[in-house]
Amino acid sequence: MSFSPGTTESQGGAAASPMPASGPLADFERALTAQRDDAFAALGARFYTRLPGAPLPAPYVVGFSNAVAAQLGLDPSAVADPAFAAFFSGNFTRERSPSTMSHATVYSGHQFGVWAGQLGDGRALTLGEVEHDGARNEVQLKGAGRTPYSRMGDGRAVLRSSIREFLCSEAMHHLGIPTTRALTVIGSDQPVRREDIETAAVVARVSPSFVRFGHFEHFYSHDDVDALRTLADHVIARFYPQLREADDPYLALLDEAVRNTAALMVEWQAVGFCHGVMNTDNMSILGLTIDYGPFGFMDGFDANHICNHSDSQGRYAYRMQPQIGYWNLFCLAQALVPLFGAHYDIADEKKRGERVVADAQGVLERFKGHFAPALEARMRAKLGLEHEREGDDALANKLFEIMHANRADFTLTYRHLARVSKHDASGDASVRDLFLERAAFDAWAADYRARLAHEPRDDAARAAAMNRVNPKYVLRNHLAQTAIERAAQKDFSEVERLAKVLERPYDDQPEHEAYAGLPPDWASSLEVSCSS
Description:
alpha+beta; 12 strands
């Protein structure tokens, strides 16, 4: 297939089933096609290609989020509609008129630090956007078939990766971490080749916007300043209208990206989450976690942990994530440079350029001022320290050091620290047992107890506060793998059960205690890669 942005192509295949004329699903579909003047789809053909989804044979529902349905104003009863699976696999998109047909967007980006040129939605189609309770969200089908930007790929996602994205995006939301969300996973027995033969699936993901750093890089790389400005104006008008009053709205947009990305890096580091593919095309302009490919929550803490088996150089290791976030912001700033400085009263082009660069660098440098204090505050909260004192940062870093040396479980270490008493070692056992070098933990615990002596809260109040910021349940790889293996046998109960557990990550759920335990030995052999 040969495409360029703006063209419309049919992907052929069997005819789509008739769309129901009435009911919750039909109402939702009509809402999606009611295009608004300030929607991304209104930007014009330079930004996307309209095309239908490729038919997915015999689709079936694997997972469904009632909460996301409610967010979209979709009656959850729609999932029982026989047409539901067909609709959210993309099988109905071919019935639409050219002006309301689904679309794939074009963008570019740096992948693993190297300029990759034109990329784009290689397997994702945006159906449109809906408004409910004053909030607007785009709905996108990931895995709906080849697009102009597939770069020789098949345009499909597999059941394995789709379940992981569905579960993790919802888990991240309930952890309080900015993220895209997922409405449903639709499966099919259609074979798809990755390392092995797997089956196809589509995940319907939801976000206020899917605009990435790479969208801006694309038009910068093509020296299309008009399109670059149009895109930036769209983001400002939709999400940051107050920036229109700034001296330089585009520099202010960069400032928002710096602030939001720094905040996101704090959230990731604080729960031991590793993204795995922090390419610029996988960075949200809104500071959302986006594109769940190879990712993972750490079990045993390793500051150098690499969750992506394809990342042989460790570029996206856990400890590198804040630095990579900053590097990606630099790429965004470079892409926005042609828009900066319109208000400067400087005739000399050289001096004007120097001023632009200096101002952009000044905004980028704010990343450190946002990130470091916020992470320190988060670590104090994780340790139950209500008031800042000298030495708190060293205490937190020392814990990281002995956790790293002992590969102590990240989630359980912080969760069990809530049991430590400020008075004696009577509550140390459950966290102490996570460390092979007990003497190292005992020495740290003595310093911790001395610090707790300066805290006004009693043990019970401190423990309750710690348990509100240290999750008990995260999407560990082995939990996801179990759900995937059962789903491959058409047993979707574990997907549903796990999703429910992850809706309450900070609560004790005695009936689900097994989901909060140490991973089994076989979990260490699990690998995720870019094929995920």
